[in-house]
Design brief:
It comes from Lactobacillus corticis. This protein has 200 residues and is mainly α. The chain is built from eleven helices and no strands.
Length: 200
Amino acid sequence: MKREAKKAANRAKIIQAAKELIKKQGIKNTNVRQIAELSGISYVTMYKMFQDKKAVIRAAIMSAIDDEQHKFELFLAKREKLEVVLRRHEPFFKRAHRECSSAVLQEIILYVRQDQVLNEYFRTAQLTIWRQFLDKQRQAGVIKTNAANESIITMLTALEEYAGAHQQTLERDGGLWRDWQQIMMYGLVERSFADKLKED
């Protein structure tokens, strides 16, 4: 048991080191020797757990996806209003932009899209998050539309993909995301009119 626990701890250190290096300098500029040095795990030991650099990178990105999914699930558990949840999603992209440069972020996004395993892993996590979000908001009586959840998810996914591909645009135009929030909340109806409809 102690041996397995140590192996798991070493694996976690390697993955954490890989995540830190990827955020700082990107995937292409990160090599296994750098990961081994930062993690404090020997190069030889690391290769006993991971077949190659691709395996380490894949594990690191999966871990990062798990981290974000966990954060969002904790946020949903607070039963926040829809407006608050939508505002929570905006800082995700700003935080990602702060943690790594636009070039690195774009490299990660492209890498995930081109790796079938990672792409499927990300899509599964994404669908899980949106389904939980929509179910909770419907239960709370906030979302009343007859539109199917899968149709809404398709639209939300498209917005996420746009946001991921146009980081600089979103940074320059702070009102763009707020406009999306308004459309999500009230469609193409003016907010005051939508509020009046709720009262009637």
